[in-house]
C-alpha cells in the first residue's frame, strides 16, 4: 500500500482546526498550514512529524492533520517516516511571479543591460527585512558563494537592492524595521551595522534613487542598484548589477554602469506605470 494511503488511513476530523477564524476574517488553520510549508528549508529538507510540530510550535495532533492535508493535496510527500516538500509547492511562488506580468515584460530590458555590461542583473522586492528575487538574468561568471535564482532571499540591510527598497519606506516604518532587525549580523568586516549610520546611508539612497554596496554581504561582491517605481512614484522593486570587486573599481562602476542601470530602471518604471 502506498505511503500516502497508509498515513491517511487514520481517522481525521472533518474540520482540521476547531478555531478556524479570528475576528471572523483571519483563518487560523490556513495560517498554520502555510507555516508548516515554510518550516522546510535547506537546513531541514526532510522532517518527522515531531520535527515539524516542534519547529512550528504546534501540538502533534494539529501538525499531523495539517501534514495529512498537504500530503493529500500533493504539496508534501511522505515516505513512511519523513515528510518533505514536493514540486507542487513551486506553484505557490510562481503564482505570484506569473500574476506580476511586469517582471516578464522587464526581462528583455534586463537582457539588453546584461549584454551591455556583461554582468548579472536581478530584480527584487521587499518582504520584511529581506529582499526576494523575482527576476534574474545571469552571466557565465558566478560572483557569489550561493546560487541566486527566483525566490532567493537576502538581508535587505546589506544589499544594494535592499537599501533602495528600504529607502522607499516611510521613515517611521523604516526605523521600526531596523529596530526589529537589530543586532545586524557582521557578514564581512565591511558590513555597516550601526543603526544611525544605516539610517544616514538609506536617507542618502532615498535622495539619489540608487545605492552602491561594497563587499558588505560577501567579500569580493560589489553591487549597484536603482529604484523601480509605479505610476505614483512609489518604489515597488529594485534592479541591480552585481559584480566581483576586482573587475569593477567603484568609480568605474558608477561612471559606466550606473547610468545604464538607471536608464533600465526608468524604462521598467514606465512599464509599471502603464
Structure description:
- With 274 residues, this protein is an alpha+beta fold.
- It folds into two domains: 3-86, Winged helix-like DNA-binding domain superfamily/Winged helix DNA-binding domain (Arc Repressor Mutant, subunit A); 100-272, Beta-Lactamase (2-Layer Sandwich), CATH 3.30.450.40.
- Helix content is 45%, strand content 20%.
- It has ten helices and eleven strands.
- Helix 2 packs across helix 3.
CATH class division of the largest domain:
Alpha Beta
- How big a fraction of the residues is strand? 15-25%
Q: Tell me the name of the CATH homologous superfamily of the largest domain.
A: GAF domain
Q: Mean pLDDT, nearest integer? A: 84
In total, the number of strands is: 11
List the helices and strands and how they pair.
Layout: H1 3-8, E1 21-22, E2 26-27, H2 28-39, E3 46-47, H3 49-56, H4 60-73, E4 76-78, E5 83-85, H5 90-99, H6 101-117, E6 120-127, E7 130-137, E8 153-155, H7 160-167, H8 171-181, H9 195-208, E9 210-214, E10 221-229, E11 235-244, H10 250-272
Helix pairs in contact: 2-3, 2-4, 3-4, 6-10, 7-9
Task: Based on the model shown, name its key terms.
274 residues, disordered N terminus, Arc Repressor Mutant, subunit A, alpha+beta, Beta-Lactamase
Characterize this entry briefly.
The protein is of the alpha+beta class.
Amino acid at each position: 500500500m502506498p505511503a500516502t494511503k497508509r498515513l491517511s488511513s487514520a481517522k481525521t476530523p472533518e474540520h482540521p482546526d476547531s478555531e478556524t477564524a479570528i475576528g471572523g476574517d483571519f483563518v487560523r488553520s490556513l495560517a498554520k498550514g502555510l507555516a508548516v510549508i515554510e518550516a522546510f528549508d535547506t537546513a531541514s529538507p526532510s522532517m518527522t512529524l515531531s520535527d515539524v510540530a516542534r519547529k512550528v510550535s504546534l501540538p502533534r495532533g494539529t501538525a499531523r492533520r495539517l501534514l495529512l492535508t498537504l500530503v493529500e493535496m500533493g504539496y508534501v510527500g511522505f515516505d513512511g517516516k519523513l515528510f518533505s516538500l514536493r514540486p507542487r509547492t513551486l506553484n505557490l511562488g510562481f503564482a505570484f511571479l506569473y500574476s506580476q506580468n511586469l517582471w516578464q515584460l522587464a526581462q528583455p530590458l534586463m537582457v539588453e543591460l546584461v549584454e551591455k555590461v556583461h554582468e548579472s542583473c536581478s530584480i527584487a522586492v521587499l518582504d520584511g527585512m529581506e529582499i526576494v528575487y523575482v527576476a534574474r538574468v545571469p552571466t557565465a561568471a558566478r560572483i557569489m558563494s550561493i546560487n541566486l535564482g527566483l525566490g532567493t532571499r537576502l538581508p535587505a540591510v546589506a544589499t544594494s537592492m535592499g537599501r533602495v527598497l528600504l529607502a522607499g519606506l516611510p521613515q517611521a516604518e523604516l526605523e521600526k524595521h531596523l529596530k526589529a532587525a537589530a543586532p545586524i549580523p557582521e557578514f564581512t568586516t565591511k558590513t555597516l551595522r550601526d543603526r544611525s549610520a544605516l539610517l544616514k546611508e538609506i536617507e542618502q539612497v532615498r535622495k539619489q534613487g540608487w545605492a552602491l554596496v561594497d563587499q558588505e554581504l560577501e567579500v569580493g561582491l560589489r553591487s549597484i542598484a536603482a529604484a523601480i517605481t509605479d505610476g505614483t512614484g512609489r518604489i515597488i522593486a529594485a534592479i541591480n548589477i552585481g559584480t566581483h570587486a576586482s573587475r569593477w573599481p567603484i568609480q568605474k562602476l558608477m561612471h559606466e554602469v550606473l547610468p545604464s542601470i538607471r536608464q533600465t530602471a526608468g524604462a521598467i518604471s514606465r512599464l509599471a506605470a502603464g
